[in-house]
Design goal:
Layout: H1 7-10, H2 14-25, H3 31-38, H4 43-47, E1 50-51, E2 59-60, H5 77-111, H6 123-132, H7 142-154, H8 172-181, H9 188-198, H10 207-237, E3 243-247, E4 257-263, H11 266-276, H12 279-287, E5 293-298, H13 299-309, E6 313-315, H14 320-324, E7 331-334, H15 343-347, E8 353-356, E9 367-368, H16 376-390, E10 406-410, H17 414-420, H18 426-434, E11 439-443, H19 455-466, E12 469-474, H20 475-483, H21 497-506, E13 511-515, H22 520-534, E14 543-547, H23 553-564, E15 569-571, H24 581-595, E16 599-601, H25 605-622
Parallel strand pairs: 4-5, 4-7, 5-6, 7-8, 8-9, 11-12, 11-14, 12-13, 14-15, 15-16
Antiparallel strand pairs: 1-2, 3-10
Helix pairs in contact: 5-7, 5-9, 5-10, 5-23, 6-7, 6-10, 9-10, 10-22, 10-23, 11-16, 19-25
The chain binds iron/sulfur cluster and Broken Fe4S4 cluster (MSK).
Broken Fe4S4 cluster binds at residues 264, 299-300, 316-317, 338, 445-446, 475-476, 516-517, 552, 554-555.
């Protein structure tokens, strides 16, 4: 790609192509421009062969065997690569899990009456989770129970348990695998801290030992921090149900006050939704010449409010700068994760007010307005009011909203999927057994400027559904599929004959939106339930995972907990491990013997689909299915 790559070389989306052109005309530097300026990127780092874990370094290993083969301390390529990927897993697990802890703190505050504006939206789920945790809810009022559940799950973050609570959901055979390998996740913080300890100079220099702990750390994310995040979000804000909405940059409205919600945690965005729906603020918007208030989402905060409220989705990771370049955004409110620090600079070219809300995430060019449970409702009201007041500052010549939005269906929580099947897994089990549905794949993860935007997701998923494979998606992948029209009921026409039949019978699209990045755990929960139903291990099922365009450390943790849970996973971007033959061989082959699943790397989504189809056929054969 050259500095002046044509927009059609950078993204498959029509809105993206139009807006890349506009950004260039407006003099905006985008993620693709900066990527171009970084080329060639550091080859040592790309291979995972550089280390700056101590002040005797930085060190690097020569991949051609001519230069140094050991760091100053004596660490070789295997150790350095394993330590680096171990720290990536720890960072990803920490990000998801800290998000989960923030929700627990609100749950407790609600129970203690200290969070006006928040409430228990799904008492049934609170009670179900309480029972799962071994709490007897009989005779306890809702608020008391909320505190008890929060207390119990807070313990999952510490060091006082032998295993985290939701391991109870894991099929027996899988638990045995973890026990035998010594990778049973004990506490979320414990595993992350231990990884940081092990990767300090002079601690764990068994590269395979570090990687084993990497799996344990990732499991503490998937079956711990992320699971807490999703389940508590459902209790506080409601369990998602199928809901219609629209997506792409066409969701912005020229005659409305547009507010964009970006980041990952629904704590702030849910308050903004409540405030913006109040009559008083809508009237204020009208008195200022707008037809109303238009809330739209970006990335996973967008996924959270799309899943539960049907709030339209403006775009995924690589679209965040381009959304501002429409010149039609009065305010962007961010929480944390995947928010590019470039956004403040982009906003300066327009009238857009940028607001950061978390004490742990400040950004250049943003006004910091911190959310706290006690004052969240008032601050949300104030921010929406300020967005309305900013409407008159729009620069009409700079406003351009491309394309018409595409419709989609979202909201497929585990509960909603079960409900669509008459509250039983049987229809899915029968469809898998008959071969109408050959298997299921979680297509998840980010965008990355190294891959043509949305091409990896859409190409892979289209081929999978053509081959009667049901797709469950989250994160930026889900947004890509939505924009491509794959989440409409009509998309069944793109599915193979068996999957089409099932979609018709259940009135579902062939690509089911299960949520945001932390909601990948919904896929784990379904996989575990399916394995329990069939009396097999998760690793025996015709399932796979894929992250065709991943970029984040969170995605590394997700990939590792998915594989450690027994699900074969294909990555579209190689992680920085290629500098160690031993590490590569363990991740792509050796893990199969240890945890029953492994990674593959395949940048071409057509070939990735072939790998997955072949894997699913093999799995079916082993189960004796046609
Ligand atoms: Fe170099 Fe070892 Fe220090 Fe890493 S830990 S920077 S390899 S001396
Ligand atoms: S937002 S982690 S870019 S999916 Fe969850 Fe998208 Fe990846 Fe962020």
């Amino acid at each position: 790609m050259s500095r002046r790559s044509k927009p059609e070389e950078l993204t498959i989306t029509q809105d993206g192509r139009i807006m890349i052109g506009k950004a260039e005309r407006d003099g905006i530097e985008t993620v693709w421009d900066r990527y171009q300026k970084q080329l060639p990127q550091c080859g040592f780092c790309e291979l995972g062969l550089s280390c700056r874990n101590c002040a005797m370094g930085p060190c690097r290993i020569d991949p051609f065997g001519e230069g140094p083969q050991k760091g100053v301390c004596g660490a070789d390529a295997d150790i350095i690569v394993a330590r680096n990927i171990g720290r990536m897993i720890a960072a990803g697990a920490a990000a998801h899990s800290d998000h989960g802890r923030d929700l627990l703190e609100i749950l407790r505050a609600v129970g203690e009456g200290k969070a006006p504006g928040y409430k228990i939206s799904d008492e049934g789920k609170l009670r179900r989770i309480a029972v799962e945790l071994g709490i007897e809810p009989e005779g306890m009022d809702t608020l008391e129970l909320a505190v008890k559940v929060a207390e119990q799950l807070e313990e999952d973050f510490g060091t006082r348990k032998k295993m985290i609570s939701f391991v109870s959901r894991v099929p027996e055979k899988r638990r045995k695998v973890w026990e035998n390998l010594g990778i049973m996740p004990r506490g979320v913080d414990r595993e992350v801290v231990e990884m940081m300890h092990r990767t300090h100079m002079g601690v764990d220099n068994g590269w395979d030992n570090i990687l084993a702990h990497g799996l344990r750390t990732a499991l503490a994310d998937g079956w711990g921090g992320s699971m807490v995040a999703t389940e508590i979000s459902d209790i506080l804000f409601g369990v998602p149900k199928p809901i219609s909405s629209i997506t792409n940059m066409g969701v912005l409205k020229e005659d409305h006050v547009n507010i964009v919600l970006h980041g990952h945690n629904p704590l702030v965005s849910e308050m903004i939704v409540q405030a913006a729906q109040g009559e008083e603020l809508v009237d204020l918007a009208k008195s200022r010449g707008a037809k109303g208030i238009n809330l739209v989402g970006l990335c996973c905060t967008g996924n959270e409010v799309l899943m539960r409220r049907g709030i339209p989705m403006a775009g995924n990771h690589l679209m965040s700068e381009l959304v501002l370049a429409t010149g039609a955004v009065e305010m962007m409110i961010v929480d944390y994760q995947c928010i590019m620090p470039s956004l403040g600079d982009v906003a300066k070219c327009y009238h857009t007010k940028m607001v950061s809300t978390s004490d742990k995430a400040k950004f250049p060019g943003m006004e910091h307005r911190e959310f706290h449970p006690e004052t969240a409702r008032d601050l949300a009201y104030q921010l929406v009011k300020e967005a309305i007041e900013n409407f008159e500052n729009r620069i009409p010549d700079k406003v351009y909203i491309p394309t018409e939005p595409v419709s989609l269906i979202s909201g497929f929580s585990v509960e909603a999927i079960l409900e669509a099947m008459g509250n039983s897994l049987n229809p899915l089990v029968d469809a898998i057994k008959s071969g109408d549905v050959k298997g299921a794949v979680g297509v998840v993860g980010c965008n990355n400027p190294k891959i043509k935007h949305d091409y990896g997701h859409v190409t892979l998923t289209t081929k999978l559904i053509e081959n009667d494979i049901l797709v469950l998606d989250t994160g930026c992948a889900a947004i890509a599929h939505g924009k491509a029209g794959l989440k409409q009921l009509e998309a069944k026409s793109k599915a193979g004959p068996g999957l089409r039949k099932v979609c018709e019978a259940l009135s579902i699209p062939p690509v089911l939106h299960v949520g945001s990045c932390v909601d990948n755990i919904r896929i784990l929960v379904i996989a575990a339930a399916l394995a329990n139903e069939l009396g097999v291990d998760i690793a025996d099922l015709p399932l796979a995972g894929a992250a065709p365009e991943w970029y984040s450390e969170k995605a590394v943790s997700i990939g590792c907990y998915v594989v450690a849970s027994g699900i074969f996973t294909v990555l579209g971007v190689a992680p920085p491990v290629l500098g160690s033959k031993n590490v590569v061989s363990l991740l792509t082959e050796g893990l199969k013997d240890l945890v029953g699943a492994n990674f593959a790397v395949e940048p071409d989504p057509n070939k990735a689909a072939d790998l997955i189809i072949k894997h699913i056929e093999n799995q079916r054969q082993k189960l004796g299915l046609p």
